[in-house]
Amino acid sequence: MRIDTHKQLVKISAPLHVESSTIRAFLARNQNWLEQQVEKRPTTQVVQEGSLVPFRGAEYRVVIDPSVREIEAKADGDMVLPARGEPVLRLQRFLIAQASEDLRARADRLSAQLGIPFRSLRVRDTKTRWGSCSSKAGLNFCWRLIFAEDAVREYVVAHEVAHLKHMDHSPAFWAQCAALCPDELDIEAAKSTLRREGNGWHALIFDGSAGR
Known about the structure:
It is built from six helices and eleven strands. By secondary structure, it is an alpha/beta fold. A hairpin with a 4-residue loop joins β6 (about 70-75) and β7 (about 80). It starts with a strand and ends in a 7-residue tail after the last strand.
């Protein structure tokens, strides 16, 4: 059972042979937990002009300016968007492109440091994991990591790259993850940031689809 923040739905997955009465009983047993989780979830926020959007650890106010041709995160705290087309969708594409470039560069560097290459890297809007590593050496990351500061993305990429060598969470894995991170990077602080900010990052809607 999980909560889809974007569609404001509760989703329960079960094998096809499970009867609906069993699913209803499962939901009833977990109703208190579900209500607590719903209360903790932030309300979805449709991004529009004037909205605050995080980017690389800083917060920017969305400004639509007909005089500009490219999206720019300015030092004064404005994220300036061209007015043509659909500006907010352009912003989402910009953020995804920034995430793809940033995460791939980190993965290239850290996998070279490890001495084990990855076969593929995909950036998607994953809801339950910030990153994953498949048994076929495929790395996957959530594009919303671009909202976080550099240290958080460095940790997440180091975590998944370490799985290229250790497909578990054994002491050897955590030692490898720490070895890939800079000495000054606080892994526990990075984890704390993801737990504290993650729901809010997932609540940002860039296409006006909240409630669909």
